[in-house]
Amino acid sequence: MLGGVETRSVSPVFVGRADELAVLTDALTRAEGQEPQAMLIGGEAGVGKTRLTEEFLCEADRRGAVVAVGGCVEIGAEGLPFAPFSTALRTLHRLLPEELAAAAAGQEDELARILPELGDTPRGPHDEESTARLFELTARMLERLAADRTVVLVLEDLHWSDTSTRHLLSYLFRSLAGGRLVVVATYRADDVHRRHPLRPLLAELDRLRTVRRIELSRFSRAEVRRQLAGILAAQPDEDFVDSVFDRSDGNAFFVEELVASRESGCRTGLTESLRDLLLVRVEVLPDETQGLVRIVAEGGSAVEYPLLRAVAGLSEDELIEALRAAVGANILLATPDGDGYRFRHSLVREAVSDDLLPGERARVNRRYAEALETDPSLIRAEERVIRLASYWYHANDPAKALPAVLVASVAARRRHAYSEQLRLLERAMDLWDSVPQEVREALRPADYTDVYPPCGCDPASTPLQRLDLLAEATVAARYGGERERALKITKTALRLLEEDRDPLRSAWFWTERSRLVAGLGRGDGWEEIAKAQDLVRGLPPSRVHAEVLVWAAGWGMLHKPGPDNLAAAERAVEYARMVGAEDTELNARITVGCLLTDSGDGPGGLAEMHAVRERATELGLTMLAGRAHINLTSQLESMGRSREAVELAEQGAELVRKSRLLDTEAWVCGNMAESLYSLGRWDEAVEAARRTVLVGQSAAPRGSGSARLAYLALARGELAEAAQQFAAARAHFGTHDAQPQHRIPLYRLAIGLAAGEGRITDVRAETAAAIAYGFPLGQHRYAWPLLLASASAEADARGLPAAGAGRDAALDVLRTAARRLATPVPVWGAHAEYVRAELLRAEARDTVADWAAVEEAIRPLERPYLLARARHRLAEAMLAAGGDREPAAVLLREAYATADRIGSRRLREDLALLAQRARLPLTAADASPATPAPRTDPAEALGLTSRERDVLRLVAAGSTNRKIAEELFISPKTASVHVSNILAKLGVAGRGEAAALAHRLRLFGPPVPVSPRPEAARRGV
After folding, report:
1. How far from 155 is each of 86, 341, 350, 643, 844, CA to CA, in Å?
2. pTM for this prediction
3. Tens of pLDDT, residues 376-392
4. How confident is the prediction for the chain on average, in pLDDT?
5. How many CB atoms lie within 10 A of CB 835?
């Protein structure tokens, strides 16, 4: 190529930017220590971003780093999906072929969506997790590639980036956790106006502490002088320095252009117009060269030599001479890979392109399009369809542009570039009315659409309709995360369907609208589903009909459990079978299985879901197999079969992790955390819950993970952490979509927090609200733990002054609610026994027999935490009743060992205090009949002084600081100081929590009786 003929207009001396280069080299050093680095370089056009980057890359190369550069391509509004990443990864593939193949091993099909050299791009699957799945795979591939070598990835011209590129960059900057990787992105700051699509990304990245941003300013006069000296290889005249500095205003590129204009003999003077300045050197070139430069300007950011030869209309010798003149004038440069040409600076290309006449621009684009249609091999296959669509569109030929744009939309979809697919579909709809009818009638839905089920027509023979495009755009917008746009598209479609009645198409759009309304928090989606049901009622079976029934049954299962949902789900299965829609059938059968177990047919429901899981796995329908794992693990936990649930969850997590179904994995991990909590494997439960929050893409699974973490913190006695996770869970779940499976556990957490902080009034309020909300069919699994938490709080609060008023009514409410709850399996029967015993304890009527029954019911269930709590109460009752103390000691030791193993600080403290009061050892090694454990004062064990003990006694009684001061003859300020010290020593956040702790530890109550108390008559709930 013609790389060595250019005239020097660039200073060989690197001027200024020492601080900025130091920041970049520091990032390189950090990356060499396995700390990934993210850098942003911004500045106006021509200020020197590229030169700074080149100097940095020279340093990186000197230090042995592997360097890959990719630039965003300006080609119409839609852009090339993942263009800079594809280019950079192609370089890495060339430099490190074996290493990249190893890093991508097992995921070549998916990663081919970004790097086509890895293989053929599969047609699916397509869902709302597809893009996140691809991003995760890309991030992990880069981390593996940079595990034992430093890799520098440079992405240039983000101001031209497509939406998919921006989303992937954001994901990388947020998720890269390891490897010797530096990612540098540059952008033109003066192009990023208030409504520019890059602006939100820059704002987001500014909030990340891991991203460093460099803003380049213009040169000072001294720096311009140094730049001129470098270009001219001599000290410049001071008047010339002043003139250039005034005209360029310190912009490095403008300085170069001003010098080049003077040196190339352009004697037109220093023009006032920047556009004239950029064009003046083009206009002195030979006519053929000027014409060629105009052609290159319309070809894109770079034009391949074979394509340019086909479009230019010159002989090869004439083309070479014209290129030589353009390269010699420093207007064009050979591309880094040596297969084409680009402008030395995009500002020149923009000026040349803007100077074209409208008809001239259309003619040049037509020549590009015709050349590509004649010989598709002129450019890379992955770029062909999108560039052809752009050329035909700018050629102002709607009849040619519409099919090309639709083909490009299909290609974008296959690359999971849904935002680009949406833009192309919107362009197709803009073109629709301008295209001759005969052209539109030749288009077929089967060729351009994939998500819209046939609505009483053959997609291979029926002409494509505008509604088909609207349907495809709706799903593209939803998959691309643009739900607001998708909602507007459904509104447009339904308005069209008011004029052209088509109940199946309308039902499909209403079902989509239901998803979107729920996803945006505008409602629960039921109103839209009800309209879809009305539209399909009475119609023959169809795929749309089956999908509406599945969605309705699933909605009912989650929001309004009841027998009607089972009938709808079974009818959906029947309809799906009739029309041969096996994926819809399997989805409906999962819902059937869940509803069967909820209604009491556990074996039947589990068998149905296992069958679906196996069939979906066999067909490669990983999303459905994942949903089967989610619901199976949930139902097994509901039946008390936690060990089975964990084993199945581990299998499910491995399955969906391979396909990077992130939300599905989050749900599976959340269910695993719940079952691990039940089994007392709390450290593992924390890991699973954190994984849920980490990988979840939607709010609901993240809310589930936060709720699990809140439960664990509450059980461990970490109230501050529990409150924080509870707030996170509530924020994730929101208030718009009140599913019982989310709402009831939140009530349970609110009760636990209120109880831990000594707010018995709030405990009762939350309990009343939960009972008023209701416990629908199948929700006993969440209701029993809630009632147990409330009953335990009432029992623990017995004796507190604030708890007396309203206690009888509160206990009656709990007893009534418990009588109405189902106990279909032993685990919930054990909970019923536990609730009954706690209610008796709240009235001081519990007996050894009551707690023995609870312990006996829980013992075979593999619920160590629940069993340890029951043994605590049983031991307490035995000691209170008198008699042989050794069985109580054994129970205490067993419970203490469990509490210590699972990490429940609160239970451990309660057991230690009981053992201390009863003078019983907590370990077998300490047990010695001759030396009973010494009796110690628990207040002293907590480090409380005599005065602080007096103050705490009054705090526990509900006294204010002023009342405490009056009682103890001290000032209110001194009382306040004592209260603050007490809170710090007890490790609690407020007075209520301190009072509750004092009461729970019986700091001021009588010791455990050593003489028997009369056995109260055992009474039922």
Report:
1. 10, 19, 20, 48, 72
2. 0.75
3. 999 988 889 999 999 99
4. 86
5. 26
